[in-house]
Amino acid sequence: xxxxxxxxxxxxxxxxxxxxxxxxxxxxxxxxxxxxxxxxxxxxxxxxxxxxxxxxxxxxxxxxxxxxxxxxxxxxxxxxxxxxxxxxxxxxxxxxxxxxxxxxxxxxxxxxxxxxxxxxxxxxxxxxxxxxxxxxxxxxxxxxxxxxxxxxxxxxxxxxxxxxxxxxxxxxxxxxxxxxxxx
Length: 183
Known about the structure:
Layout: H1 2-19, H2 25-43, H3 47-51, E1 54-61, E2 67-68, H4 74-83, E3 89-93, E4 96-98, E5 103-105, E6 109-122, E7 127-141, E8 144-154, H5 160-181
Parallel strand pairs: 1-8
Antiparallel strand pairs: 1-2, 3-6, 4-6, 5-6, 6-7, 7-8
């Protein structure tokens, strides 16, 4: 029975290994270039350049957890965030770095994750820098890799925006406690 279990474990691990990392060096180079192109498009506010790299059925969850698809597009999101007369964000700069080489499955699907330092300049002049994490799924169509899904997240507890509120509330909290001493 032990031999049977060992053979089964060996066979299943071989199948798993055969299914992953089936991409070529050319695939990985194209995926690295895709990351650079996405960064440049966002940093230059060139949505058309960004959309050229998206699969037609893309799904993107941005930092504030809004979901962007072909029904509510990146162009609409960028107009809402940056272009409207009452837009609250003046500019966004991202600096994504892959934590791993993309795992490619069956030569067609790629999964990668990483970190990014994202700098937001708000319309009121304040600036915030967030350390975000991301996960991306890419699909190869013909000889081109397209971004199929992207999820970007920020720690909701430990980030510069919350730290600013903590500082403000911390000082206010001290004042409240001092005022209680004199009641």
